[in-house]
Amino acid sequence: MLKHNILKTSWCKLRTRYMHKNASLSEASKSKECAISRIRNIGILAHIDAGKTTTTERMLYYSGLIRNMGEVHHGNTVTDYMEQERQRGITITSAAVTFNWKDYRFNLIDTPGHIDFTMEVEQTLQILDGAIVVLDGSAGVEAQTLTVSRQADRYNIPRIIYVNKMDRADADFDMSLRSVESKLNVETLPIQIPVLNAGVLEGIVDVITMEKLTFDKKHQGMNLIKAKIFESDDGRLWDVASEKRRLLTDKLSSLDDKLADIIIEQESLDNVQPQMLVDSLRRVTIGRKGVPVTLGSSYKNIGVQPLMDSVILYLPSPTNLDQLNPYRYFANNLAARVFKIVHDKQRGPITFFRIYSGNMKKGQKLYNVTREQSEQCTRLYVACADDYKEMAEVSYGNIAAVSGLKSTITGDLVTASASVANRAKQSMLEENPNRLDYVDNFFASGVKLLDPVFFCSIEPPSLSAQSALETALQELQREDPSLHVKNDLETEQIVLGGMGELHIDIIKQRIRTEYKIDVDLGPLQIAYKETIQDPVKDTLSVEHRVGQTTHKVTITMSLIPNYEGKTKLLLDRSSETASNIDSIHPRVMSAIKNGVNAALLHGLKLSCPVINVGVKLHWLEVARGTSDTIVSAAALQCIRKVVTSRRK
Fold first, then answer.
1. Coil, strand, or helix at residue 487?
2. What would the pLDDT profile of 43-74 be if each residue is shown by its tens digit?
3. Do 518 and 617 lie in a common domain?
4. Pairing state of beta strands 159-164 and 291-295?
């Protein structure tokens, strides 16, 4: 075992040494920056074991960034660099890598697939321009695929779907497509079909160019061979590919008016040129009207290069950002958002930024808009997982890593100075005078913190290690906002809150291995939540006499399932109720929201918080002189009555 670990460490060091010398990374470090239109900021999202990290490793190999491919089961991949990742064979923390492919720069982030590390995905999604969703071809859409897709929907991120593991005997491309359409509710646009020989994947057909793609097994798929398919050579393959091309063209024409006009003019689905389909696919993908679907087997070195080509062709560059993008208010001044922090043993805390405007320079003073304080950027880097290439400057549209920042945390917004921030905020307010919350939220932290699911106490081996443990927890909490740390005043213990049993176990192991503190954990406790399965509706009337005033409220509300995760107060504006709802004073509406929020803090089953529900207000009558407190109490009692009626 010791010999295996030594060999593994030596292998990783050799790979790191090579990456320093490699042409792709050297080109990335030159002062001549890649044109902004040739930058792709992308993430790889998937359910656990769908093949994200294996796919990333192949991308690094084919791009020339690494000379030899690592494997997850060998514990020597570039992006799974933590000891816990290599031992467990899973991705725990997101890892950023920068490499070149066909004169384009990819800033790629490999994200975890386990539900316990959803916060890592959330932090990453807020700074991406596009994403690759990896599916297991034998399973289709799985639980975490659904979760990460919902997260990506919240950030309006265009996606490509890559159906991986198509070499497996039970892989089914058509099943995967049906799974995507039914579970993710998106329009699939398959641009490839598998070529099978006796059930074995031997290649891919690109239905846009009508080419068969085969991959040289002797050279680990490095040599991609393209050959036009003709009806005279393989009539069956030609018929299938031609039909799939017609279906793709027809589907695209229903989503893209420009292509529809071309087809009407040509009066045929068969004569559309490949470039016209590519242009249409790009418009549809960036407009989030449909999702291109590719396929392959990353482990068998099939399909990865065409996937990278698809990233170039269909996913947006930073210049394709919505014209209403709020970072435009900074003009050409620096504006960057923090999405990740790691603690490096030599360099201290490394802060990762996505640069949305201007350039970031080594030694520059940065103004933290969220914290309202200035900090000095000591050194500036481009990252390749846990390897850092020092830079003099990193330009707009790219991802930068910075050392020397002590107070900045994940989600913070930084710029060049306080005056730049004030001018940007003023410009934003002038264009959005009625959206103060929107403006304030933009300049506040961009991270949506998640409530912990598991709790347990943590204790050092002795009182002398208490201070070291507190330091370790501070650093880990800064890296991982989903880790909650608090002091229990009654028991005088430190209590950890995490997203799952695995999450907390990894925190324990990291403290033991990285900080050399032999901590013990107490029993795990679960933070239960309640929800509903079916819609339910009820009416409540309350009347209280206080002094000479009669306080009277009649309110009708309903609860509906809402699996987007955020509780919303919806208003019933149907023809029968619209006039009543529209007449509600904003002050009264605020009182109703307070009552609803209070009611959902404690469910009637276990007295646990109620989540994943939508609350709809259908009717409200409030007598003159009724206090806001009575209105809030009525809303609270109505919700509880609704929940009670559900249980009958």
1. strand
2. 999 999 999 999 999 999 999 999 999 888 88
3. no
4. parallel
CATH number at 507 reads 3.30.70.870
Alpha helices in 299-392 (DSSP H): 304-314
Residue 138 sits in the same domain as residue 273: yes
Tens of pLDDT along 624-637? 889 999 999 999 99
Half-sphere CA count of 382, side-chain side, radius 13 A: 27
Asked if 51 and 136 touch (Cβ cutoff 8 Å), the reply is yes
Residue 568: predicted pLDDT = 74
User: 338 and 217, same structural domain?
Assistant: no
Within a domain: 349: yes
How far apart CA 400 and CA 377 sit, in angstroms, is 11
**Domain end point (choices 522, 546, 567):** 522
pLDDT tens figures, 396-430: 999 999 999 999 999 999 999 999 999 999 999 99
What range defines the domain where residue 579 resides? 536-645
CA neighbor of 214 nearest in space, from 231, 240, 247, 237:
237
**Tens-place pLDDT, residues 131-190:** 999 999 999 999 999 999 999 999 999 999 999 999 999 999 999 999 999 999 999 999
Q: Identify residue 106 by its one-letter amino acid code.
A: F
The reply to whether 377 falls in a domain is yes
Q: Is 56 exposed, middle or buried (0-12, 13-18, 19+ CB in 10 A)?
A: buried
* Per-residue pLDDT at 32: 40
Dihedral class, residue 271 (left if φ above 0, else alpha if ψ from -120 to 50, else beta): alpha
At 26 the pLDDT is 41
Angle at 119 between CA 496 and CA 481, to 5 degrees: 45
Residues in the chain: 648
Supply the pLDDT for residue 24.
40
| Widest pairwise Cα distance in the chain | 95
- Are residues 164 and 226 located together in one domain of the fold? yes
471, 500, 522: which is the final residue of a domain? Answer: 522
List the CATH number of the domain containing 608: 3.30.230.10
pLDDT of 322 strictly over 70: no
> What is the residue-averaged pLDDT of the chain?
90
- Asked if the structure places residue 296 within a domain, the reply is yes
Which residues make Cβ contacts (< 8 Å) with residue 302, sequence separation at least 6? 166, 167, 201, 203, 204, 215, 221, 296
Q: What is d(CA 510, CA 84) in angstroms, rounded to the nearest whole number?
A: 8
Asked if residue 265 and residue 189 are part of one domain, the reply reads yes
CATH code of the domain covering residue 207? 3.40.50.300
Alpha-carbon dihedral sign for residues 253, 257, 259, 260: positive
What total number of domains does the chain contain? 4
Which of 509, 336, 545 lies closest to 424 in space, CA to CA? 336
Inform me whether the pLDDT recorded for 270 exceeds 90. Answer: no
In a shared domain, residues 481 and 567: no
Lowest mean pLDDT of 187-191, 520-524, 545-549, name the range: 545-549
- Averaged pLDDT, 595-605: 87
Burial class (CB in 10 A: 0-12, 13-18, 19+), 53: buried
In whole angstroms, what is the distance from residue 418 CA to residue 426 CA?
Answer: 12
